[in-house]
Amino acid sequence: MQSRLFERESGQRRSLFGHGDDVAFVKRLDVLAKLEGHAGCVNALNFVSGSKFLLSSGDDKQVRVWDTCSLSCKVVLDTVHVKNVFGVCGLDAPSWNTGGGGLVASCSSDGVVQVTDSVANTCLRMWDLSSPGYRVVPSV
Asked: pLDDT exceeding 90 applies to what percent of the chain?
């Protein structure tokens, strides 16, 4: 299952279970909990590897850290984003298990990428990629 999920996420496979089977799979799922807090669409969800935390970002320009055990929002991160936040991920996974939080990277349609310390709720680094001539080359 993990290899099929990786293939789908990397664009090598269109479906987890075969052509069109994803819809049937999703229909079999139940709602276990409803996390409320964002004012608008949620654009990204990301579980922090090996921890109990879930990250979310949305049209309200917010990034939230959720505790999946208590089903509560642990912190709403201060961001510099002025448009919808479309991507969020946890960095430095070991610190999430020992310190109750860690580094969060977020990106939005305003061209800004931000790295925030979720414990101190402070911006550590920011890149404005909307500047002319600025290119990001992904590492392999």
From this structure: 47
> Is this structure's pTM higher than 0.70?
yes
Torsion of CA 83, 78, 91, 30, to 10 degrees: -70
Reading the block at residue 84, the tokens are 């919808």
